[in-house]
């Protein structure tokens, strides 16, 4: 597994962007016959809302409860989505896409290759005592390249590499995941996933470090393990257009990230429930 992560690390950001741009001229792959035969691209949309309870590892450990929009728009094989909209396009199918602007570059047999662009809102230190003196984390555009492999009817493996494309010191983040999906009926399923995350030096220092230029004791990290997470969810199609979901998540920081002075909680849980209309 580490060798595969290194291979993803060696894929340059420019190559990922070129792949995403070039995909607009590639022939459609693994499309439904009705899409292939249609001269005009199929357009779909999804709109909904989710109630979520969450915390952040970094900074104060205050829990936030809020209502968030679920929005998505699909033109042919290209998708623009936020939050859970990316996983609600087709309930019951194995394909799960990334939020943001994404497309499937290649889908062949049990393998898939995808690329996406996502806006990272950064972090404002504000008056949080744990972040006192720590520079704000600037917002940036991240490019992501993902590889998926369905090695059994209900099991899948995934690798991804995400990079800061604007040079805002966001660095690179790499993930490996194992997923399982259990159909309950033609309209519903539950799924679970386990993932491990790594970061390069720029990512770890910008998210968990304290630079020497501050009045606080510096805390410098090298690239390494960031943490692990576990997710459990239930999704159901209420009818042809309406879909609902509920999910629980648990995440834990490891290694140097967990020992950072800016970390308020090493282990966190989150919950969300939502409903959306799709057409």
Automatic annotation (TrEMBL):
It comes from the Bacteria. InterPro entries: MipA. It is found in: Cell outer membrane. Keywords: Cell outer membrane, Membrane, Signal. GO terms for cellular component: cell outer membrane. Pfam families: MipA. Residues 1-30 form the signal peptide. Belongs to the MipA/OmpV family. This is MipA/OmpV family protein. The lineage of its organism: Bacteria, Pseudomonadati, Pseudomonadota, Betaproteobacteria, Burkholderiales.
